[in-house]
Structures are given as C-alpha cells and as structure tokens.
Amino acid sequence: MSTPPEETQSKLPLLVLVLLYPIAMLGRRVLGIVSHTGEVFYLLQAATKWVYRGLTNKKYRLGRSAIISQMVRIGVRSIFIVMIVSGAVGLILALQLSPPLEEFGSKDKVANIIAVAVLRELGPLIGAIVLTGFAGASIAAEIGTMVVSEEIEALEAHALNPIRFLVVPRVLASTISMTILGVVSSFAAIVASMGVAITVLDIPYDTYMDNMLTQAKMVDFWTGVAKGAVFGTLIGIIACTNGLRVTGGAAGVGRATTYTVVECIVAIVVADLVFTAIFFALGLF
C-alpha cells in the first residue's frame, strides 16, 4: 500500500529540519567565534591607538599609577604560584627524562633537553596558564561587575573613555607582567631541575652547567620572551573583551570568567603553535 501524497509532503519538512539542524548549529557556532574574534581585535586596535597617543601626545597620558597598580595585582602577586608550578615541572622533567637517557649512557644530557624545552616552550606557557587563572578571570569579573553596576555608563556620561581608563592599563600590565613572569618561570624550572639533577641523579654541577650552556642559545631565551609578551597581551585583551560584553547580571559575570579562562588557554596554545611554525620555517631552532 503506497503512502498518500499528503503524508509524504508532511514528512519532508521534518526530515529537512533534522538534516539541516546540525549544519545550522555548526554555522551559528562558527559565526559566533568569528564575531567574538572580531570584537577582540577591535578592542586591541582601540587599545593600541590609545597607547600610541599616550606615547606621542602629552595631552593623553597613559596613567602610570594605574598601570603600576595593575602590575602589582596581576604580576607581583602571581610570582610565588608561578615559581611553585614551574619548579614542580622542572623536577618532574628531570626525574622523568633520567631513566630513558640513562639507558643510552646520556643521563647528563638531561640539562640539554630541559634548557631548550623550558626556555622555548614551558617557561612562558606555564606562566601564561597560571596567569590566566590568577589574573585573567579576575580582570573579566572586575570589568563585568562594573558593566552590571552601570559604572561603565557613568564613565561615558562623564566623557571618560572606558578603553583608555580601564582596558589600556590592564592590557599593558598583563603584557609587561607576563613578559617578566615568563623569564621567572623558566628560571624556576631550570633551578629546580638542576637541584634534583645534582642531589638525586648525581650529575655534577659543572657538567650540568656546561651541557645547558652549550645547548641553550640566546635565540631560545628571546623566543620565550617574545612568547611571554604575546601571551600577556592575549590574556589582557580577551579578559577585557569578555568583561565589557557581560549581560545578565551576576550570572553573566560568571559566564564571562569561565569563557575568559577557556578562550585564553585556547588562544595561548594556538599562538604558541603559530610561533613554533614560524620559527621552524625560519630555521631559528
């Protein structure tokens, strides 16, 4: 018995909806990501414009006291936790690398691997991830609370630009702080790995230092410094963007902090991948 034409026509729209729903959801998600990325770059452009004005025009001051206070809150207070995490990673690397290298009679080469890995990658990467949780979420929550309590509108009512007075100090502070924290993180990891190598793995101090200095080059150090600066800029600008786009009261502030942590980590890893691809193509390794 054949299906009546009316029933066939009624089933077709439902079937089309079922098939197109995943595509529509994917498209909406992609458009949302593109739109949010555009917001981040727009805010970065606006912040860069205010920084340029502050450096070239005496009429527009950057507000050194605000930048320094943000550096203390973002960078100085996170030094201890960054050193703990990086030191622990350095210990782990030394202990994990020793057994396989010892099988080839190259246990002293632990210093070579750790020096390059920490200076190029792990130092700035660990510092950026710690700073994301320590300061990125805090910046987003702080600015988001100001949006909810209409303090941003109050600034605009007094002819004060929120980007100049709120975003620029935080982005500059996170960039400068992360640049320094990347170096501190690398130093802590190397010192910790050196300590366990000398005391536990019985690698002489002179051997460890000679191998490390032979393998590590200045380009490795400056690679980590450049990554730290970019990571800090990403953390600051993403946190400020999510804070400024808060809606929905306290629940919106909570969503902004969650999105900030996730987006910062994804952006940092992607930026690290781009750095690595560029340096590999240029033969800087």
Protein architecture, described:
The structure is a single chain. The chain has 285 residues and is mostly helical. The protein has one domain. 86% of the residues lie in helices and 0% in strands. It is built from 9 helices and no strands. It has helices spanning 5-56, 64-74, 79-103, 110-148, 151-157, 162-199, 205-215, 218-244, 249-282. The longest helix is centred in the first third of the chain and has 52 residues, at 5-56. The chain starts with a helix and ends with a helix.
Task: Characterize this entry briefly.
With 285 residues, this protein is an all-alpha fold. The longest helix has 52 residues.
Count the domains. 1
Number of strands: 0
Report, as a whole number of angstroms, the end-to-end distance.
73 Å
How many helices? The count is 9
Please name the defining characteristics of this protein:
285 residues; mainly alpha; 9 helices; globular
Task: Give a topology summary.
Blueprint (H helix, E strand, L loop, with lengths): L4 H52 L7 H11 L4 H25 L6 H39 L2 H7 L4 H38 L5 H11 L2 H27 L4 H34 L3
